[in-house]
Specification:
Helix content: 10-25%
Shape: globular
Oligomer: single chain
Number of helices: 2
Distance between the termini: 12 Å
Largest sheet: 4 strands, antiparallel
Structural class: alpha+beta
Strand order of the largest sheet: 1-2-3-4
Order of helices and strands: HHEEEE
């Protein structure tokens, strides 16, 4: 559900601040929570978040269009080095 709501917010500007969903340690859930805190601010091309529990870890959230399909991309960084990339559609 968080994936669909995050997608809806990034594409259509839906405000997630009013929602209170359970959090897990899964990357999408972490980024959903971080994004929902700023979702009503001005729309950007990408968002960068610092992990609440590990200050050396950051996440970059953005949309990428591949063959007419818009996908959510979350890049995970540790000390400014990219360690993982997650793509959802």
């Amino acid at each position: 559900m968080q994936k669909k709501l995050l997608y809806h917010s990034l594409v259509d500007g839906y405000n997630l601040k009013v929602l209170n969903l359970p959090t897990t340690n899964y990357i999408l859930s972490k980024v959903f929570d971080l994004y929902s805190k700023v979702s009503n601010s001005k729309k950007k091309n990408s968002y960068t978040f610092k992990d609440d529990k590990d200050s050396s870890r950051t996440y970059k959230l953005y949309l990428r269009k591949d063959n007419s399909i818009t996908k959510i991309v979350i890049e995970e960084f540790y000390n400014d080095s990219k360690i993982n990339q997650h793509i959802y559609w």
